[in-house]
Design goal:
- The longest helix is centred in the middle third of the chain and has 21 residues, at 30-50.
- The chain is elongated.
- The protein is built from 4 helices and no strands.
- It starts with 11 loop residues before the first helix and ends in a 15-residue tail after the last helix.
- The chain has helices at residues 12-18, 30-50, 54-74, 79-93.
Length: 108
């Protein structure tokens, strides 16, 4: 028996069953679900950092977005709201296109 203790996508239990195995799953309440989404986001970020080719990077970025979408849905946040704030911040503070790295700030 393998122990996983992690949040899974909706169809994973079905896929496990189709492979002739028996998954043990539980439905989380909202508080536990929110915690597990946070853990999943950290897990997916770690996998993104470890990705070593373009296809893997794209896959991990897609996984991160899926977790963000799920967290937004849980909190009743529409993705358009996030995108609006992202664009507002970009307009006010810029993006990261110029690859700037702040080394220090001196007082006048």
């Amino acid at each position: 028996m393998e122990i996983h203790n992690k949040l899974i996508r909706d169809r994973i239990a079905e896929i496990i069953k189709s492979n002739g195995e028996i998954p043990e799953v539980e439905v989380l309440d909202d508080a536990d679900y929110a915690k597990k989404l946070d853990e999943k986001l950290l897990e997916e970020c770690g996998e993104l950092f470890a990705a070593d080719n373009k296809d893997s990077i794209i896959e991990e970025m897609a996984d991160i977005l899926e977790v963000i979408y799920a967290k937004a849905d849980l909190l009743g946040i529409v993705i358009d709201e996030i995108e609006k704030v992202r664009l507002e911040k970009r307009e006010k503070r810029g993006a990261f296109k110029e690859k700037l790295f702040l080394k220090s700030v001196r007082q006048f």
